Amino acid sequence: MRHVYECSVRFDDLDAFGHVNNVTFAEYLQEARVDFAHRQLRASSGNAPHEGSVVVQQSIDYLAPVPFRTEPLRVEVWVTRIGTTSFEVAYEVKDESTLFARATGVLVAFDVRGNTPRPVNPVEREILERYLEPAP
């Protein structure tokens, strides 16, 4: 299963060529990841506010330029691997006819108070497993 986030293209997302700037794609991924964390993980896991995850690696493949548009982009995020203290995610940024970007990332479960990684707890693991599917 994939978590779906609809992301608006803002006028200031565009570069000098009239396309969404490459750096902005990272913001779109972050918005989808935060939406996933708040709607799925945080709401269901019972984690304290200081418990969450941090991004330790991210890679984006740009497949097609995104011009300004009024229709939102669809950002899909899903889990591709769950480890002891980390998990990997994959993303697709697309609309009904075009795949604009693919991305992957590694997140580490983190305790902000202790400033240390922590194990993925059993409830988080159960939630993450619902979104587990192979990378494209």
From TrEMBL:
Pfam families linked to this entry: 4HBT_2 (PF13279)
Molecular functions per Gene Ontology: fatty acyl-CoA hydrolase activity
CDD domains: 4HBT
Alphabetical list of PANTHER family matching this protein: 4-HYDROXYBENZOYL-COA THIOESTERASE FAMILY MEMBER, LONG-CHAIN ACYL-COA THIOESTERASE FADM
Protein name: Acyl-CoA thioesterase
Organism: Jiangella rhizosphaerae
